[in-house]
Amino acid sequence: MTKKVLLLPGDGIGPEIAAEARKVLNVVNDQFGLGLELDEALVGGAAIDAAGKALPEDTWAKCQAADAILLGAVGGPKWDNLPPAERPEKGGLLKIRSGLDLFGNLRPAILSPQLADASSLKPEVVSGLDILIVRELTGGIYFGEPRGIRTKENGVREGYNTYVYDEEEIRRIGRVAFEAAMKRGKRLCSVDKANVLEVTMLWREVMEDLAKEYPEVELSHMYVDNAAMQLVRAPKQFDVMVTGNMFGDILSDAAAMLTGSIGMLPSASLDVNGKGMYEPCHGSAPDIAGQGIANPLAMIVSAAMMLRHSLGMEEAAVKIEQAVDAVLDQGLRTADIWSEGTRKVSTAEMGDAVVAALQV
Ligand code: NAD
User: In this predicted structure, what is the pLDDT of residue 260?
Assistant: First the structure.
């Protein structure tokens, strides 16, 4: 049975790293007989230039038809002066996320022991770090209504937003997190502010209820302020963390930086059936675009994540992750993760090295 994978290279370094992910996918496709059918389409600034909008109809049709989507990155100074709704980010990326109802955001923060020196924390605190943050992506305070800025009767302006989750929204993100925990260390920490916010009191109640369906998973709860502290104090205590949109936004960035290098981190955004869009955590890096020096590994491990979570191809996913590990063991580094005593390589050389490691 064939599986349709849509590659959306996007802007800046997007096409450079997408080319390397394509090489890797082609190799595992042949090796494992995966039946992947790779297609490609324009999104973001590249689509604005070629077709007048960030998400052309043809691209949207392909997104809907695909079994999984692999995106590079979108955006850049060239399109920053457009009205927000037409920009690559809002008019392209966010439209795909909301149009496909990709509510479940998985952001692993993994630090290969070989890169422990790249972190701003002490190597012994972060070496071997392997956390998965599950963030709700389409609800919560970022989307809640009413919202706005209004003038009160006394003439003073006030801004307001609404932090709202219904129990179905909580249950579906909770389920994603429990399922993910089942595939990992079977420990789940739900992050809330249940001492103050009613919406997260309900969040906690629903998580407790859901835990009955997953007796093997050890569920704990933590207030978000403590979670922020624990992430920098002793991050290895966590296996899977689940939280709402805003807390997840903040905590996942903090967790990403524990690893010291944004060029290494993948992410996934999933719908209720596990269909998803996979992308590196970083953006289009306009400052280094076109120089052939971008790190393609976040994109390559995003491809591995896609095989695992949306396409059920665990063996091929593990093979890619092992190949990435092997090239790091060989001392190959792109500029962003380079340090004394290692060998600096280009984007394409790094991709080729992963391909070579897949073939031994
Ligand atoms: P960025 O992640 O693109 O870059 C931040 C810094 O990290 C830069 O110095 C960059 O060179 C470096 N960097 C990022 N990825 C790298 C890689 N793979 N290898 C080596 N170095 C890497 O963030 P930014 O500069 O804030 O944003 C640039 C553009 O990307 C903006 O237009 C922004 O809107 C867009 N953006 C897109 C996404 C997305 O498509 N998902 C996410 C974030 C930002």
Answer: 73
Closest of 316, 286, 313, 281 to residue 299, by C-alpha:
281
Ligand 1 atom at shortest distance from the alpha carbon of 288: 11
Catalytic pick from 101, 130, 253, 325?
A: 253
225 is catalytic: yes
Taking the chain, what is the end-to-end CA distance rounded to the nearest angstrom?
Answer: 27
> In CATH, what number is assigned to the domain containing residue 77?
3.40.718.10
Report d(CA 328, CA 23) in Å as an integer.
18
Show the tokens assigned to 207. 């998580």
Whether residue 168 lies inside any domain: the answer is: yes
- Whether residue 77 is found in the same domain as residue 135: no
In a domain, 57, yes or no: yes
Which numbered atom of ligand 1 lies nearest the CA of 93?
Answer: 40
Per-residue pLDDT tens digits for 278-320:
999 899 999 999 999 999 999 999 999 999 989 999 999 999 9
pLDDT in tens, 2-55: 999 999 999 999 999 999 999 999 999 999 999 999 999 999 999 999 999 999
SS3 assignment, position 185: coil
| Phi, psi for residue 229 in degrees, rounded to 5 | -65, -45
Number of domains comprising the chain: 2
**Two tokens, residue 11:** 């802007």
CA 292, CA 346: separation in Å to the nearest integer? 6
What is the per-residue pLDDT across 105-155, written as a single tens digit (0 to 9) for each? 999 999 888 888 878 899 889 988 999 999 999 999 988 999 999 999 999
How remote is the C-alpha of 360 from its chain's centroid? 29
Does some domain include residue 120? no
Percent over 70 (pLDDT), the chain: 100
Does 253 participate in catalysis according to the annotation? yes
Q: Which of 3, 95, 193, 319 is catalytic?
A: 193
Among 130, 73, 133, CA closest to 259: 130
Examine the domain organization and report whether 276 and 237 are in the same domain. no
CA distances from 173 to 82, 156, 161, 180, 229 (A): 34, 38, 22, 11, 24
CA atoms within 13 A on the CB side of 116: 12
* pLDDT, position 233: 96
Residue with CA at minimum distance from ligand 1 atom 44 = 283
Domain limits for position 212: 130-258
